[in-house]
Amino acid sequence: MRIARLAALLAMLMAAPLAAAGAANHQYIQAGRLIDSIAGTMTQGQCIEVRGERIVAVAPCGPTPAGAQRIDWSAYTVLPGLIDLHTHLADAGQSADLAAPIKTSPQLTALHGAQNALLTLRAGFTTVRDVGTYRGLTDVALRDAINQGLVPGPRMFVAGAYLTHPGGGGELNGVVPNDQLPADMRLGVMRGPEAAAEKATFLFDNGADFLKLLATGAVLAIGTEPGAPELSEAEMRAAIAIARARGRYATAHAHGAEGIKAAIRAGARSIEHASLIDDETLQLAKDSGVWLVMDIYNGDYIDEVGTKEGWPEEYLRKNRETTDVQRAGFAKAVKIGVKIAYGTDSGVYPHGLNGRQFAYMVRYGMTPMQAIQSATIRAAELLGREADLGSIAPGRFADLVAVSGDPIDNIRLLETVDHVMKGGAIVR
Hints:
- By secondary structure, the chain is an alpha/beta fold.
- It has helices spanning about 1-15, 20, 100-105, 105-120, 140-145, 195-205, 235-245, 255-265, 280-290, 300-310, 315-335, 355-365, 370-375, 375-385, and strands spanning about 25-35, 40-45, 45-50, 55-60, 70-80, 80-85, 125-130, 155-160, 160-165, 210-215, 250-255, 270-275, 290-295, 400-405, 420, 425.
- Strands 1, 2, 3, 4, 5, 14, 15 and 16 form an eight-stranded mixed sheet that branches. A five-stranded parallel sheet has the order 9-10-11-12-13. It has a three-stranded parallel sheet with strand order 6-7-8, covered by helices on one side.
- It is globular and about 65 Å long.
- The model is unreliable at about 15-20 (pLDDT under 50).
């Protein structure tokens, strides 16, 4: 089975154009409809001029500029490249086998990551934030390989490892005694503010872009409860102080309200999941300007596929206890104006299906344009990269997605995109 998967991966990689090799120097892209994610509007008759990796002009279509290649996307709606802020590309993926991450060697984990990166890019997600891997720093290696043009994939911002307590939500629990796990699976395990600062320093020194703090227990971790606080406010504050000194930030995995509040008080920039958030904490998030990244699609996948495949009953029970209440919290967050960015927890479900969450965000209170903005300009704002990403405007990277039809009328069109460009290179 592993040989077959590797053969399929190699075939895909050989067939996929690398961004560095595929980018034309000068292109003129004719869009049928164009979504302006900043204004929240859609226009017609616009053309996008690209030189190298970046957009140089967006204006009503005219004659093809001298020396430019004209690309006819007049039958499509063109959007900025999509951004998923909660992925796990550099991992073996979720299954019924608790031991799968330890059974998967670091080398094979890296190859899984390359395959996952390609699937994600071809799905229209040209940028991702990878928020943790059991094999620490594998995400750093994958990001660097993509940036060097060795494998095709989205732009990656990576955490390096989970900052978590021994036996906490970021540990591989229930397989072997945790102190017998490989060292690369415990790079962020710590207890106490001093250790938190040391681990944060280590991760930044070894290539992490931001920190991932496990403020509460997890749904998909044995022996932890989503509502139970884990990292203390003091521990998170110590790690965040290191991040700020480096000009970086931290995001917090936090399901329960107490853990969310502690993470916000400690200075986290964003909260992942927020499944059990209450009204008081929603208001605190709004008042503090903290982002919520709520994965409201994958509860259905876990319930259906996890039940069929025999995932641990503890996982299924915790998923049932958090799915509907998380969606209710999401609807409240939309209604009161909390900042929300797109994140799916890809890796829990197969990579490449990231677009399935759009319909759920619309079902639970967003307009289609708001959902699109959450995965474009809003996600770029959370990253602090809105000058480069998240919109179709001069100076931004030429990261584009084209879909047949109008996603404002049918948001599910974003589940299967027709064309993808990353940095001026057509990858689909």
